[in-house]
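pls design
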C-alpha cells in the first residue's frame, strides 16, 4: 500500500469540515458507515458528503487491537470529538470503554447493540451502565449505514461552534509518524488537535526545541494551503532535523517577543516535569492513587509514564519520565491510566505544573 503522503491530487484547496469519531467495535460495522482508508494498529474509515456549503467528512478511528493494547485507543479518544460503541455483550471491556469515553469528555456518541448469534444484550441494563458512567446523553441507534451517518452528521451540526473555535485556537499538532520521501524530504504526519497550520508557517518541534518550515501540506491525499483542527495532515518540513522528530513530538508556533509592538505570545503548551494532579475518578474505579504507583498520562496523543511521589485521596504529585506538554489555553482532559488496574483508566485529571 502506498503511503498517504506520496499520492498527490491537486483537486483540493478547500478546507473541509471533518468530524473525528473514536470507535470500539467491528470492522464490519465501521465499513457500513464509511470506507476503509488505512489499516495499521489504528484502522481509519472516511465518508464524504456534500451539501450546500460543500463537502463534509466523517472520519472513524478504530483501534483494532483494543482491548489488548490501550495506547492506540487512548490516541483515538484524543483525536475524536464523538464516539461509537458496538455492544456485543456486557462485560469488563465494555465497562472500561465507557470509563474511557466519559473521562475523555466525549458526551456525544452512539451505541449500537449487536449481540452475536444466540446471545442477547439487555438494552435497559446497557443504558443504565452508560448513564452511571456519565454517558447518559448517548444515542442508542439501530439501522443501516445511511441512518447511522445521519446521526453522526447531526452530532457534527450540534458541535459546529466548538469545531470552529478549536480551529481558531493556538496550533498544536502531535506527530505520530515521520519519514523521508524521495523528492519531498522529511514528512511528519499527525492530527491537528487545535488551531490551523498554513503552508510556509514556521514551526517549533517539541521537546527538542528544533524548528522547521511547512513547505507543503496534504490532507486526505490532496495538496492543501491550510489544515485545521480535526484534519489528519502530512507536513513536508523544510530545514528540520529528523532526530528532532519522535514519538510524542508536538508541532507548535514559535513564541513571539516583539519589544517594538509590545507583543508577547508564549508557546501554546507548557512542559510539565512534575505535576500536581487532581483526579476525577471514574465511578467504576475502586482503586485510589498511592505513593510509588506508576501511572500513564494520555493527552493530545502523548502517552507519558510517571511515578506518584505523594498522594492524598484523588490529589497526587507525579514526576514524569519525559516532559508532558499541556495546552496553555483550554487544556483537554488528561486521562490517567494504571495498566495493572481494572479498569485500566482511573479517570481524567486537571494538572498543575510544579516549578
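designed seq:
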Amino acid at each position: 500500500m502506498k503511503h498517504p503522503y506520496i499520492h498527490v491530487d491537486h483537486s483540493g484547496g478547500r478546507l473541509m469540515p471533518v468530524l473525528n469519531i473514536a470507535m470500539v467495535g467491528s470492522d464490519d460495522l465501521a465499513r457500513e458507515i464509511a470506507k476503509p482508508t488505512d489499516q495499521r494498529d489504528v484502522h481509519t474509515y472516511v465518508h464524504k458528503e456534500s451539501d450546500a456549503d460543500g463537502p463534509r467528512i466523517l472520519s472513524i478511528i478504530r483501534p483494532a487491537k483494543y482491548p489488548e493494547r490501550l495506547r492506540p485507543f487512548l490516541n483515538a479518544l484524543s483525536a475524536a470529538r464523538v464516539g461509537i460503541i458496538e455492544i456485543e455483550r456486557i462485560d469488563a471491556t465494555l465497562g472500561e470503554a465507557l470509563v474511557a469515553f466519559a473521562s475523555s469528555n466525549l458526551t456525544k456518541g452512539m451505541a449500537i447493540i449487536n449481540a452475536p448469534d444466540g446471545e442477547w444484550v439487555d438494552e435497559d441494563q446497557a443504558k443504565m451502565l452508560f448513564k452511571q458512567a456519565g454517558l447518559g446523553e448517548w444515542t442508542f441507534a439501530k439501522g443501516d449505514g445511511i441512518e447511522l451517518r445521519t446521526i453522526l452528521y447531526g452530532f457534527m451540526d450540534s458541535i459546529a461552534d466548538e469545531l470552529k473555535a478549536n480551529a481558531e485556537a493556538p496550533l498544536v499538532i502531535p506527530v505520530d509518524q515521520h519519514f523521508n520521501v524521495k523528492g519531498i524530504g522529511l514528512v511528519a504526519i499527525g492530527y491537528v488537535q487545535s488551531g490551523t497550520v498554513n503552508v510556509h508557517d514556521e514551526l517549533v518541534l517539541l521537546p527538542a526545541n528544533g524548528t522547521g518550515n511547512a513547505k507543503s501540506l496534504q490532507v486526505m491525499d490532496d495538496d492543501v494551503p491550510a489544515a485545521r483542527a480535526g484534519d489528519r495532515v502530512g507536513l513536508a518540513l523544510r530545514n528540520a532535523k529528523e532526530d528532532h522528530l519522535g514519538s510524542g513530538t508536538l508541532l507548535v508556533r514559535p513564541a513571539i517577543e516583539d519589544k517594538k509592538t509590545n507583543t508577547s505570545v508564549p508557546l501554546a503548551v507548557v512542559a510539565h516535569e512534575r505535576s500536581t494532579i487532581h483526579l476525577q475518578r471514574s465511578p467504576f474505579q475502586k482503586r485510589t492513587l498511592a505513593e510509588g504507583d506508576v501511572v500513564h498520562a494520555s493527552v493530545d496523543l502523548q502517552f507519558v509514564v510517571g511515578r506518584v511521589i505523594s498522594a492524598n485521596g484523588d490529589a497526587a504529585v507525579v514526576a514524569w519520565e519525559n516532559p508532558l506538554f499541556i495546552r496553555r489555553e483550554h487544556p483537554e482532559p488528561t486521562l490517567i491510566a494504571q495498566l495493572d488496574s481494572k479498569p485500566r483508566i482511573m479517570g481524567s485529571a486537571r494538572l498543575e505544573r510544579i516549578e
